[in-house]
Design goal:
The chain is an alpha/beta fold. Strand 5 (180-185), helix 7 and strand 6 (205-207) form a beta-alpha-beta unit. The strands form two sheets. An eight-stranded mixed β-sheet has the order 1-8-7-3-4-5-6-2. The chain is built from 19 helices and 16 strands.
Length: 543
């Protein structure tokens, strides 16, 4: 590469560290299909067979990943997709259109998809109607391979630096975390859920990066400097040597933090702070244990609902919750009920498009409106409580009325399980304080729960009236704003007055500049991304 190929771009760092590796450009597939007449039928059939084989291989890998991460029941969807892709009638329809009508493979797959979806949607059986979405899924996969637009998560050949325009949480969750060295996002925000996930994965990451998202960068050597917020493409020898040295020093510093393993999380005055971790799924427990966390303060259960085309079953959820509780061996695990909505969308929920989804139909509002979905999750949670130390946490609470109804439903679910002779254990019930309304009336809410967990991400955006996904407002967003800190103080005081404990599970929990102040406020627990655990323990011990 010549000197002109060397590129330096700036971004906003969301996790410090240095990563060196090859670029993998992730772009959403564009599945526009054009109708074309072909002359070489055999060549077109070969194109289809090659695309089908590639799709089949991807589905096999997805099945294995899902089996590893979430269990057999959830993985079965990818087994079903393989069977549908290999279905004789489906394949005959495609090949006949290519042979008889002399149409291109993309068009043949598209027309077959339309035909089969119509057939399934016209059936009376609900299960069979659900197969329409599966047909659409496999067909889109084959079409995107055929037209060369597919750049899918499972296509990553080796550990890479991902470059993308933006990543939805449902996309991020599909990546094989063992193959991600760093993430560089053109858009995004330091407070977005993608940024939060990057911190959970403990990888250097940049958002709002001045970079063209173009596949021409695929395979090029790059460096992400998460300390300085810089992204180097084809760095020269001098820059590479400096970055290698910087990475070495960062790794050595991380190694020094290992001295914190096994030590108590106590202040100089002897106050113990419960130091927990935030996770997005079963696969994150390894990071929790590796970083010597004392428990899990936030299990984002909505990630069980993302990246799929139907609701997770009670048994599938139960297995996920049970696995996490069992692996934590009696340590506290707080699972937040689903927080779908806002930037975390799942099409099958059928949520109408909203002008302002952050203030719309989301989280507990969905659960109390669609009680069947809520009850399914609660049954799974209560069954799992027999296998560990469980806390159940409800998001986006703004009134006592909501808590009263939630507890009524919990009691009804307990009665159901009793009648079915299904065991459950003891568990705590808590709520997230993430709206100014909840913070202001926290004295009224506290008598009804065992604990509060302050979600500082949403609390900050609602208090400041600043959309945390809007990168153009980053300069106005002040997480240390006195209004936010006063609401946190008020919440802690009101929790303690009623005998409830209070923690922070939002990103502010890992803000070392505020640690001493939180301790002065009387905070009982801090829950952070696993990668911050040892550093935060060191900071607490210095306070």
């Amino acid at each position: 590469m010549g000197r002109t190929d060397r590129i330096l771009r700036e971004g906003k760092s969301v996790f410090k560290g240095v990563a060196i590796g090859k670029i993998f450009v992730y772009k959403k597939a564009e599945n526009a299909v054009t109708k074309e007449t072909i002359t070489d039928v055999d060549a077109e059939l070969a194109r289809f067979e090659e695309a089908k084989a590639k799709a089949m291989e991807q589905l096999k890998r997805l099945y294995e990943k899902a089996l590893r991460d979430v269990g057999e029941e959830e993985a079965m969807i990818f087994d079903v997709h393989q069977m549908l892709l290999d279905d004789l009638d489906y394949n005959e329809s495609i090949t006949n259109i290519i042979k008889e009508e002399k149409m291109n493979a993309e068009y043949a797959v598209f027309m077959t998809c339309e035909q089969f979806m119509g057939m399934f949607l016209g059936m009376d059986d609900e299960y069979m109607r659900g197969r329409a979405a599966d047909i659409e899924d496999i067909s889109k996969r084959v079409i995107s391979i055929l037209n060369g637009t597919q750049v899918s998560p499972e296509a990553m050949p080796e550990p890479v630096i991902i470059v993308a325009e933006d990543l939805a949480p449902s996309e991020t969750v599909q990546f094989d975390k063992s193959k991600i060295l760093a993430i560089v996002i053109q858009k995004g925000s330091a407070n977005s859920h993608t940024a939060i996930l990057a911190r959970t994965m403990n990888i250097p990451s940049l958002v709002t990066t001045d970079i063209e998202v173009d596949t021409k960068y695929n395979g090029r050597t790059a460096v992400v400097d998460g300390f300085a917020g810089l992204f180097y493409i084809n760095p020269d020898d001098e820059t590479m040597a400096k970055m290698v040295e910087k990475k070495k020093r960062a790794d050595e510093q991380r190694a020094l933090l290992q001295e914190m393993r096994g030590k108590e999380t106590v202040t100089k005055s002897g106050k113990h702070i419960h130091l927990y971790s935030n996770i997005g799924g079963v696969q994150d427990v390894d990071a929790v244990l590796e970083n010597d966390s004392e428990g899990i303060g936030l299990f984002r259960s909505e990630f069980l609902y993302l990246g799929r085309d139907d609701y997770p079953t009670e048994d599938a959820q139960f297995e996920a919750y049970k696995t996490v509780l069992a692996r934590m061996q009696g340590k506290k695990v707080i699972i937040r009920t689903l927080d779908i909505g806002a930037d975390k969308q799942a099409d099958y929920f059928g949520i109408p498009k909203e002008e302002n989804p952050a203030l719309g139909f989301r989280a507990i509002r969905i659960c109390l409106t669609r009680e069947d979905v809520f009850r399914t999750q609660l049954r799974a949670l209560l069954r799992a409580s027999a296998f560990g130390n469980l806390g159940i946490m409800f998001p986006m609470i703004i009134s006592v009325k909501e808590i009263v109804r939630i507890k009524e439903i919990v009691d009804e679910v307990k009665l159901e399980l009793d009648r079915e002779d299904i065991a459950y254990g003891n568990f705590e019930l808590g709520i997230m304080i993430e709206t100014p309304a909840a913070a202001v009336i926290s004295d009224l809410l506290a008598p009804h729960v065992d604990f509060f967990s302050i979600g500082t991400n949403d609390l900050s955006q609602y208090t400041l009236a600043i959309d945390r996904q809007n990168q153009s407002l980053d300069n106005f967003f002040d997480p240390h704003h006195e209004a936010i800190l006063r609401l946190i103080q008020l919440t802690i005081e009101n929790a303690h007055k009623s005998g409830a404990w209070c923690g922070i599970c939002g990103e502010l929990g890992a803000d070392m500049e505020l640690t001493a102040r939180f301790i002065q406020m009387g905070i009982d627990e801090l829950s952070v991304s696993p990668g911050y655990t040892l550093e935060l323990r060191k900071r607490i011990r210095e306070c």
